Amino acid sequence: MSAFDLDAAPEALDAADPLRGFRSRFHIPTHEGHEQAYFCGNSLGLQPTAVRAALMQELDDWAALGVEAHFRGKHPWMPYHETVRESLARVVGAQPVEVVAMNSLTANLHFLMVSFYRPTAERPAIVIEAGAFPSDRHAVASQIRFHGFNPDTDLIEVVPDEPAGTISMAAIERAMAEHGHRVALVLWPGVQYRTGQAFDLREISRLAHARGCTVGFDLAHAAGNLPLQLHDSGADFAAWCSYKYLNSGPGAVAGAFVHERHAHADVPRFAGWWGHDQASRFKMGPEFVPSPGADGWQLSNPPILALAPLRVSLDLFAEAGMDRLRERSERLTGYLEALIRRDCADVLQVVTPAVRARRGCQLSLRVAGGRERGRALFDFLSERGIVGDWREPDVIRISPAPLYNSHVDVRRFAAAVVLWREAGG
Predict the structure, then answer these.
(1) pLDDT for position 4
(2) Backbone angles phi, psi at 214, to 5 degrees
(3) Residue 1 pLDDT
(4) How many CB atoms within 10 Å of residue 279?
(5) How far apart, in whole angstroms, are the C-alpha atoms of residue 386 and residue 101?
């Protein structure tokens, strides 16, 4: 941790940061008249200041133009989802034809599994990580049941094998060696929500494909957090939400990726009118002709008022650049880790891997002494306007988001933990 000058004033570190100005383009919630130290972008990103005007523009166009706003508004609604395509593709490292903003995360996982989970009596199984986010586990278990198989035998969960509760690549490889002949699909997180561990998507895709399995990724905690290379990973599909690091508001329109090798594939899917090829969509014919690429998995016309915040947020990502944001993220999270190890090691154990390539901005922190002591610390922080989130039974997640968090925020968190300890916590 010698790369961090822990004795330097955090204000000076922020003043020297080339991306410091992006913080002013977000609304920072306040607590007792002062800005919060908000570390909860892993659950809900903050609101960009430009969102209100973007929403008002769509409301004004609706008021002034009615249905004609589909074609004549400032941002015409008919091709509106296309306005976010290129910037969304850059954020996740995909070709534009491979991505689409639609639906919600779990809905997208279900719709994509219709196409890419094709079980047989010989290959009925799905591989996920043990302790997966409940929605993912519910989704895959229900898919297995829907196809007439049994999650008790056909849902394979890879258990953590590292001391802090993280999963090695060797454990995934062992699972594939043992079960790969029965596996139809590997569905894996880009970042595990509880531990903050990031995974090598390319290597997981290689392992899955070598065993004849399809592979998809849930990127809820990775999109907007890590500089992903989805196209190069070789994944068959992926999905993510946009309300966390992509700062697009509660229940925001999610994203989906389908690799370009499937762009023209004749695969089973649940079809809807908006997924029909644009050239003939308005002929209103009875036969479904899918649009090439990820667009062909759309069902309904996109919700404009929900897409507007995503467009605003993606403009910020395009301006900052994922590589520069990743550099700043590594500095902020590394600074956080260094302060914890120097000042708070008797209170907090860092669960998230120390190797930067194996984590995003989130640190999952296990509180020494168990749940009751952990909740006491969490409540103490909350009462002082320091916002993280709690995961049972004893973990506080703290995520310095590089678009709006600062070294001052990080130092404030560490100082509060020290204060709590010294007060007898």
Answers:
(1) 77
(2) -85, 160
(3) 38
(4) 9
(5) 32
Q: Please give the pLDDT value at position 380.
A: 98
For the chain, the domains span: 10-35+322-422, 55-318
Under the banding of pLDDT at 50, 70 and 90, the label for residue 285 is very high
For residue 410, give the nearest of 350, 341, 336 by alpha carbon.
336
Residue positions counted in the chain? 425
CA dist list (Å): 414 to 34, 245, 421: 18, 22, 11
Tell me if residue 144 falls in helix, strand or coil.
helix
Topology adopted by domain 10-35+322-422 = Aspartate Aminotransferase, domain 1 (3.90.1150)
* Alpha-carbon gap, residue 130 to 160, rounded angstroms: 7
Q: 55-318: which CATH topology? A: Aspartate Aminotransferase; domain 2 (3.40.640)
Q: Which tokens is 68 given?
A: 């004609």
Strands 214-218 and 237-240: parallel
How far separated are the first and last CA of the chain, in Å rounded?
27
Q: What pLDDT does residue 2 have?
A: 43
Rg (CA), the chain: 22
DSSP β-ladder status, 34-35 and 99-101:
unpaired
Tokens read off for 2? 């010698």
Residue 141's Cβ-count burial label (10 Å; 0-12, 13-18, 19+) is middle
Locate 222 and state its tokens: 């990775």
Give 75-92 pLDDT, tens digit per residue: 999 999 999 999 999 999
CA distances from 104 to 101, 155, 384 (A): 9, 23, 33
Q: How far apart are CA 156 and CA 141, in angstroms?
A: 10
Q: Are 175 and 156 in contact (CB under 8 A)?
A: yes
Q: Please give the C-alpha separations between residue 155 and each of 102, 158, 217, 406, 415, in angstroms, as whole numbers.
A: 27, 10, 16, 42, 44
What are the tokens at 122? 């010989």
Q: Check residue 188 and report its DSSP letter.
A: E
| Exposure class string for 302-311: b at 16+ Cβ within 10 A, else e | bbbebbbbbb
- Give Cα separations from 370 to 346, 384, 393, 396 (angstroms): 13, 22, 8, 12
Please say whether the beta carbons of 45 and 389 come within 8 A: no
Amino acid letter, residue 41: G
